[in-house]
Amino acid sequence: MRDLYMWAQLALAAATSASAINIPRGENGFVSMPISYKSHERPLMSKRDEDNNVPLFNISVLSYLIELSIGTPGQPVKVAIDTGSSELWVNPNCKTSQSTAQYQECLTNGQYDASQSSTAKDLDSGNTIPYGIGTVEIEYFKDNVALPNSTINLKNIQFGAASQSEDLNEGILGLSFGSKPPTADLRYSNFVDELVLQNVTDTRAFSVALGNQEASNGGVIIFGGIDTGKYTGKMTTVPIMGPQGGEKLNRYWVQLKTIGMTTGGNSKKYDNSATPIVIDTGSSLSTLPANVVSAMVRDLNGSQDRSGNVIVPCPSSNTDNASFDFDFGGVTISIPYRHLVIQATTRTCILGVQAASSSSVMLLGDSFMRSAYVVFDQDNMQIGLAPYANCGENEQTISSKGVNGVEGKCDNSNSNSGGSGGGNSGNGKNDKKGAATGLSSSMGSLALACLTACVSFLSMQAL
Predict the structure, then answer these.
(1) What is annotated as the active site (predicted)?
(2) What is the pTM (predicted TM-score) of this model?
(3) Given the residues 82, 143, 193, 366, the one annotated as active site
(4) Which one of 317, 342, 401, 404 counts the least CB within 10 Å of its CB?
């Protein structure tokens, strides 16, 4: 019994010590959040691509989610991060999911009930948001939005609660432009805007590491910050362009200089591959010029089905050193062949690209993002790009001057070598009770667990 009391005292001391060495990351003007992912079956089409053909394959794709806590008391809700749209909305109609599995996944993401929140405000207005696959009708509310595992609680955030949705089994956190001129797409401040307005981050900038398909865990998104342990070389920035192709909305448009292929030590560039293109975490596939996709099909001895899916040989030892190379001028993101391929069936593989139609928006979706570390900087109107790697964690604030030239800590041996690791929610700049480092947090959790177990055991003994 004395030993049990001793262990309880040690556990309590460890928990106290761990909490005493908290490092409030958010005090430096950034907040880091883990990205989890879910694999689910869905037709192989881009979210924004209008394609009326019936796809031949339902494949496993990944959704990249973060968790928010909405209302008072907080109601946990998971939403998909989307750099291709601007609004936060929750409560998809799970009954319209495309499969039983998606229906079950939808339910586990959580639902928001305004009637159960003492801080909810119904704004008596709404909107309809169309996607290439699926549409949502939302009613606007304002409520508090807290970031789990932190003391950050954003006040009076405007968002939508779905009143009707089709073919969407996840809510969405839109991370594109909000209400700040000259790039205002909304009449209200969105999530990225509010982080700055409520003094959580210094800049309207954030970085994303999705990690590759071989990752055993999720990625990390850092609002107001960058992790130099998630890329190789120097961060290179390219300008965000204005609306293209007759669009009126501002998006993360950049100029892609060339697309090429490397195999067997030989490299080639595809003709007429230069194009303005949007970097979009909300799209599973990348939409590229039709002539480039046709050239890829020829080079890979592949084929296109009637839905435009690019059927290619599955990765083997013959393709270990093959890559597709995306040159933005000053930085090239090379995607290993095995990371650009999606397994459709046991014998069939599909390339994670599709040919653009005359009405398509050129997109670099998740099939590109998994091989890149990307910084979306609205204040400086720049996109930062570097080859993705994983050599640990080294998070820091994005300065008002941006991220151009910021050196990554990884070498080439770490490139495309696994998951991007999980982030920890930090705390706001003026928050003096910041989250602990991963080490101290783990120690605290372990000590607390030990303490709880010891106390429970002692209580039973006392009975």
Answers:
(1) 82, 280
(2) 0.81
(3) 82
(4) 317
Q: Which of 193, 227, 280, 366 is catalytic?
A: 280
Three-state DSSP class for 165? Answer: strand
Query: For residue 250, how far is the Cα from the chain centroid?
Result: 19
Query: What is residue 390's three-state secondary structure?
Result: coil
What does each C-alpha distance from 136 to 88, 131, 141, 188, 232 come to in angstroms? 12, 8, 15, 19, 39
280 among known catalytic residues: yes
Is there a shared CATH topology between the 28-204 domain and the 207-414 domain? yes
The CATH code of the domain at 28-204 is 2.40.70.10
Taking only the tens place, the pLDDT of each residue in 5-61 is 444 443 444 333 333 333 324 568 899 999 988 776 555 444 444 433 333 444 556
Q: Give CA–CA dist 346/353, Å, rounded.
A: 20
- State the Cα–Cα distance between residues 172 and 70, nearest whole angstrom: 14
**46 touches 363 (CB < 8 A):** yes
At 117 the pLDDT is 98
C-alpha–C-alpha distance, residues 407 and 428, integer Å: 25
pLDDT, tens digit (0-9, with 9 covering 90-100), for 186-222: 999 999 999 999 999 999 999 999 986 555 456 999 9
Domain ranges of the chain: 28-204, 207-414
CATH of 207-414, one of 3.30.70.3040, 2.40.70.10, 2.20.25.110, 3.30.930.10: 2.40.70.10
